[in-house]
Amino acid sequence: MKLLRYGPPGNELPGLLDAEGRIRSLSRLVTDLAGSALLPDALARIAAVDQRSLPLVEQPVRLGPCVAGTGKFICIGLNYSDHAAETGAAVPPEPVIFMKATSAICGPNDDVLIPRGSSMTDWEIELGVVIGKTAKHVNEADALEHVAGYCISHDVSERGFQLHRAGQWTKGKSCDTFGPIGPWLVTKEEIADPQDLAMRLKVNGQLVQNGSTRTMVYGVAELVSYLSRFMSLHPGDIISTGTPPGVGMGMKPPAYLKNGDVVELQIDGLGIQTQRFVADA
Ligand code: ZN
Predict the structure, then answer these.
(1) pLDDT tens for residues 237-253?
(2) Is the same domain home to 22 and 115?
(3) The three-state (H, E, C) secondary structure of 206-272, written as one string
(4) For residue 25, how far is its CA from the centre of ligand 1 (angstroms)?
(5) pLDDT for residue 146 is more than 90
C-alpha cells in the first residue's frame, strides 16, 4: 500500500494512493497515520478493505508528510562508504547517529526554506524507514517485523551550521522544512529488498546523486536492531539511513543551493519529491 496524508499543513487527513494513482480517503478507518494506526494489525485492516469502496479525494491536493506523530527522527551519518570518502571522513566502526528535530518535517513537495545566514544549504537523498511496532533489544533477524514501511527522506543540511558552528550536526540538520518526508509511506510488503533500491537526486534537472541502497555500510535490519539497543523505537519514528555520494559539499568546487533552485528526488518504488528552495525572508 501507498499511504499518504493530504491537506493543508497541520490539518492533513489520512489517505492512500489506489492502483490507478488516485487518492482515496482513509478517514473512515483511521483518524491519522500515526501511532497505533501503524501497527501490523492496523495496517492489515486497511489492506483488507476494497479500495474502490473508499471515497475519492479531489486532486490536485497538497501532500503532507506521510506519517504523523513522529517522536524521533534519527539520522545515520556516513552510511555509504563512497559518501564518507567524498566528505573526507572515514567509515565509522559503528553507526554514527544524530537527531533531526521533528519540527523540521514537512511535505514532500513543500518549499524548503534556506535559513537566514546560510551559504551552505545542501541536499541528501535517503531511504527513510518508518517504525510500525515498538522495538527494544530486537535481533537483526526480527528487526524488519518492527518496520511499517519506507519513504523518501530528504536530509537537507546546512554544512556551515553542521561543521563550523561548534561541531553539532543536529544544528545543521534541524532547520524548519529540512525534513521533507514522502510522498507515500510504502508498506514493507511492496518493497522486496530495501537493500536494492536505486536512488537519484537532481538539482535544476541535473543528476547529481545516482546511487543505490546496495552500497549502504549498515543495512536497514542492522540499523533497527542497533538503535533498539540504545533506545526504544516507537510507531511513527523515522530512521533516515544515510546518503550516497554526490552531495554539494563533495563537489569541486563545492556547490550549494540558492533561492529558486529546484531539487527532485526519486527512489525505486517510493515515488518522487520535488522542492523549490526559497530564502527565509
Ligand atoms: Zn544524511
Answers:
(1) 999 999 999 999 999 99
(2) no
(3) EEEEEEEHHHECCCHHHHHHHHHCCCCECCCCEEECCCCCCCHHHCCCCCCCCCCCEEEEEECCCEE
(4) 32
(5) yes
Shared domain check, 171 and 138: yes
CA of 74 to the centre of ligand 1 (A): 10
CA 173 to ligand 1 centroid distance, Å: 8
The Å distance, Cα 217 to ligand 1 centre, comes to 13
Residues in the chain: 281
| Claim to verify: residue 27 and residue 80 sit in the same structural domain | no
C-alpha 277 to ligand 1 mean position (Å): 18
Q: Are residues 177 and 45 in the same domain?
A: no
SS3 of the chain: helix, strand, coil, percent, to 5: 20, 30, 45
Q: How far apart are CA 36 and CA 236, in angstroms?
A: 9
Rounded to the nearest angstrom, the distance between the alpha carbon of 137 and the centre of ligand 1 is 24
Q: What is the pLDDT of residues 160-170, one digit of tens each?
A: 999 998 877 99
Residue 214 alpha carbon to ligand 1 centre in Å: 16
Q: Give the range of the structural domain holding residue 39, as residue numbers without chain letter.
A: 2-53
Quick one: 23 and 153 in the same domain? Answer: no
Q: What is the number of structural domains in the chain? A: 2
Q: Using the mean position of ligand 1's atoms as its centre, give its distance from the Cα of residue 41 in Å.
A: 31
pTM for this predicted structure: 0.97
Residue 61 in any domain: the answer is: no
CA 243 to ligand 1 center in whole angstroms = 5
> What is the whole-number distance in angstroms between the Cα of residue 138 and the centre of ligand 1?
24
Q: The CATH number of the domain where 201 resides is what?
A: 3.90.850.10
Confidence of residue 67 (pLDDT cuts 50, 70, 90): very high
